[in-house]
Structure formats: C-alpha cells, structure tokens
Amino acid sequence: MLGIVVSGHINFASGMRSAVQAIVGEQPQLEFVDFLESMSTDELEAQLLAAKERVNSGDGVLFLVDLYGGSPCNRAINLLLQDPNVEVVAGTNLSMIVNAALEREEFTLRELTDCLANGEFSQIKDLRQDLAALSQDDEDETDGL
C-alpha cells in the first residue's frame, strides 16, 4: 500500500488529521507533519524523512503539501530528488487527502499522483453552475411524457 505524508504550515497537517479521521477513521501508513513557527526547515525535513520511513512499505510514498513553493513543499522535493519512489503534490485539500487514502490501493504511486494533480478527485465546484445544471435536468425531464 502507498504511504502518504501530509504536511503544511502551522497546524494544517494536524487539522487535516482530525478531519480525515472523522470522515474515514484511522488510516494505516498515513502521517501528518506540521511545520511550526518554532521549527527550522532542517527540523522539518528531518520529520518528513522520519514520517516517510514510517509509512513506506516499498510501494512508494506520496507527500501531500499545502502550498507550492512553501517550506513543506520544498523540503518534500528534497526527498523526492533523493528517492525515485517518492512523489509530491502541492495545493492539498481535505478531499484530496481522503480520496488518496481511500484510493491508494487501486493505483500505483505515479497513477495516484497524476489523478490528484489533474483534479480527477476534485471536489472544487461552482455550486451556482451545479444547481443550474440540476435545474436544467429537471426541466428536460418534465418536457417528456
């Protein structure tokens, strides 16, 4: 099974942990690493490396980080550059983490990374457009029989 490490600024990761556990329960091979104001970037990278080692069963490790170009992202990239069995996706949100945790047994590391990065599991919706489409579908059905 793919390992997953979630990281972000301040309490991003621990907040996501609470939400993920409330939605799908405790998940194996899933770690959360906060980048706190009191930490150096070297300490962050050491914690990311330790988390990677804990979740890695040999199938690969996916890092899901909050901001592209932020310290959690940059330090995860350092790990990616050292290990071909590591991938990093930036811009992580709750639905990405939940979907990654639930779908990781069905995909290779590369496939899951591509799905997440290309929005295949996206929950980002313009609700006005969705409601308009639903309304149009309802009108189409009433025009029938």
From TrEMBL:
GO terms for molecular function: kinase activity. It comes from the Bacteria. One of its GO terms (cellular component) is membrane. Residues 1-124 form the PTS EIIA type-4 domain. Keywords: Cytoplasm, Kinase, Phosphotransferase system, Sugar transport, Transferase, Transport. Pfam families: EIIA-man. Its EC number is 2.7.1.-. GO terms for biological process: phosphoenolpyruvate-dependent sugar phosphotransferase system. It is found in: Cytoplasm. Its main location: cytoplasm. This is PTS system mannose-specific EIIAB component.
